[in-house]
Amino acid sequence: MGIIARMGGYVLSVLSEMGRMTIFLFEAIYTLFTPPFKFRWFLLRIRFLGTRSMIIILLTGAFTGMVLGLQLYYTLEKFGSAALLGPAVALSLVRELGPVFSALMITGRTGSALTAEIGMMRITEQIDAFYSMALNPVRYLISPTILAGLLVFPMLAAIFDVVGIYGGYFVGVRLLGMSSGTYFSEMQTFINMDDVLVGIYKSLSFGVIVTWVCSYKGFYCGHGAEGVSRATTEAVVLSSVLILVWDYFIGSVFI
Amino acid sequence: MSREPIIRFIDVTKSFNGVKVLDRLNLEVFRGEILVIMGPSGVGKTVLLKHLIGLLRPDNGRILVYGEDITTMKGDDINRIRERFAFLFQWGALFDSMTVLENVTFPLRERTRLRDEEIMERALDVLAHVGLRGSEGKWPDELSGGMKKRVALARALVMEPEIILFDEPTTGLDPVICSSIHQLIAESHRKFNFTGVIISHEVPGIFEIADRVAMLYDGRIIEIGTPSEIMNSGNGAVQQFIKGSLEGPINVVF
After folding, report:
1. To the nearest whole angstrom, how far is the Cα of A16 from the nearest Cα of chain B?
2. How many angstroms away from the CA of A153 is the closest CA of chain B?
3. DSSP state of A149
């Protein structure tokens, strides 16, 4: 009986958490469509999400492209098709690795900071201060963040893609001696707009997922410093899991 | 001060995780008075205050503000009530991403249609009143505890609210700063003419500025009256609390 009760309790708590998260997202979206829109807070969020993750996106993008260049060259050469290195690197990046890796990097770098910031505002009663002034904190803190996520994630993924493609170019052309013309011209033949669009759809949805989960966890964090640290961990873990699960779903729809 | 109650708690009950914090509590606050609510730590004083602006909702009972039942109010209705209040949080709750001046002008910018010059004028006036002219450009984490409380008071006063709720305005301050904050509250009360509900354990210092004092204990108001009535109260818990004695009905939990 004890085990069943505990399992039931766990299932109920998971379900109610999911319900709360959904309501939170709907409230944020509803607030977005009711004036006034807080443009200044939106700009601050773009800076917050965008610039903080820039360095890490450049770094991981370059090395992801270089690893792809190295590994794919080695594999493709066995089949005598090393000339297709360009499109192979670009396709992997544009459709899959660019959106996913950049989203994971932003989660680690900025998503955690977002949760910690909103969580600190919760435990120092700054969120209650909004309510006490007859203002809705969601309008200032959450809705602009989610909108900024929609804008910033695809842009950072695009930067990741470009840097990655040049990383592959560096390995394939400069180190392994492929011709530069082959690397790029085959890319144009094999990649079409649909591939690019899949990547953009993924990035857009990751932008919502990460900003939503991370701000939710901060907004409803527990008590004290421990509450904030637990919320931050949960936010990063849940965001990362959801990114990969959602990536599979959306990939299987658009294959 | 008139004898017209603008806030009424009627049989308000609130529990957290099965523990009753407020237990059929009744309380009236009159227009223009300063009411001090004292009581041991963890007895639910902040909980009581947060009920007043709908930050917490009672499990049972009703809360009337200006005759309107706010117990189940939502959205615009509760905001209409909240606009008449200002809340001074225990640690100030200043927005730490804004400077002192931005903190004080924030409610004006968001809630009124005043022109920029008027906003600045009112903000600087009220900052002068709390003795913080010259600190406009500072960030909250550059301020001392007492200064934070002053900025928070300025942010509360700038909207010229009818009722100000103070959640332990002097926690963590030294006795001198503590008296100066009390003095500032009294001066502000004279100048801005608000109704004040102050939660405090600074007894008897806080008695100097109080019109009435209430003692919250065991989920209820066990004694309420003028400061001198409270000082001479025959209630054991009240006397123990005022004297800070270990002997008496209040359970001392370490």
Report:
1. 17
2. 24
3. H
